[in-house]
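From the pipeline queue, job 12 of 40. The input is one protein chain; the requested action is below.

Action: predict structure.
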Amino acid sequence: MLFAPAKTEFSFTLRWTVATFSSFLVSLLFIEIGEKPDLGVLQAVIGGLAIALAQSLILRHTSFYLKWVLFTVLGWTAIAVIGVGALGWFVPTTQVLAFRILSGAFYGAVGGFVIGLAQWLAIYQSIPLAWRWIFISAVSWAIAMPIGSAIGVILRQLTQVFLGEVIGLAIAWLVVAILTGINAYKLLN
């Protein structure tokens, strides 16, 4: 059962990854992938809510799962307001691979830090060493975004089809889901 309490790290990570990744895919029904200026606060709220609800199903056996939803959405809203954008739903305007990698790492780290900080507000009373989540989120996004962005631009250049960028974002989401899933299990246990 996908939403039963996980007994092993692999089980939890797999469930977290499936929930996070599938909620990204579902969010695409409501959010059109675009370039940064095209996506704003509304898209960040919708996307953040999709992710938070799916992750809260995995966390529903904790005392903070409802706070997780609230603070996750607030985190996504905050990164849109401060100018990072709807991280994970936009592609950079440049086609230069090196710039994609550097900007992906930078925006991933900043966005991941803000989201992690917001989520920390949901968990800090319940989890010893919860402050680590802030840095886990920042590092996970700083790793995932350059990978996804690089793959996206390469696929787009090879095929001349924007779908390559969407595949790159999906890979970024998959990487961040795996990395955060592994570390969420460690924090919870």
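Job complete. The longest helix spans residues 132-159.
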